[in-house]
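Structure in, sequence out. Go:
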């Protein structure tokens, strides 16, 4: 063991300690990213909610329609308490009926939508979206995680997904 304390020895020791510290930081970063992959950080390929289906595009006041969506193939991981919000809207986008229904972790749901018995004939729309979850990929945050979108990457549409519904008199 050397007892030399000349400047060259001290510099060499500091260099080795710094190199060791840098290696530890790189390994911690590498394994940290592996641990977080797919859990809190949005995936590199966007996972949009699955499209929903309406059992009929024409209904009478008092009818019951089925609104449903299959599970998404990309596994968005909405959580065990996820809900879908289903809304019946008038031509001015005023919400007439709003339902919160259970949704699977992968975005699937199924519910009945009752067309109000006093609804006048006309053109309406039905929308269905994950409730309380930002699914718009040009937002600053998705599910609480910051998102950086690179130039040229496609963005999801932030338009409300809607299906037309025509209400006709009996």
């Amino acid at each position: 063991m050397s007892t030399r304390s000349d400047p060259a020895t001290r510099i060499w020791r500091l260099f080795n300690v710094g190199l060791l510290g840098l290696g530890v930081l790189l390994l911690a970063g590498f394994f940290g990213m592996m641990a977080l992959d797919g859990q809190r950080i949005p995936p590199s390929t966007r996972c949009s909610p699955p499209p929903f289906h309406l059992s009929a595009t024409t209904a009478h006041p008092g009818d019951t329609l089925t609104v449903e969506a299959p599970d998404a193939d990309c596994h968005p991981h909405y959580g065990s308490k996820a809900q879908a919000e289903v809304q019946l809207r008038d031509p001015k986008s005023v919400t007439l009926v709003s339902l919160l229904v259970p949704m699977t972790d992968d975005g699937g749901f199924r519910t009945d939508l009752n067309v109000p018995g006093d609804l006048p004939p006309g053109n309406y729309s039905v929308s269905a979206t994950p409730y309380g979850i930002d699914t718009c990929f040009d937002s600053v945050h998705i599910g609480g995680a910051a998102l950086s979108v690179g130039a040229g990457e496609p963005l999801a549409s932030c338009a409300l997904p809607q299906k037309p519904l025509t209400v006709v008199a009996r």
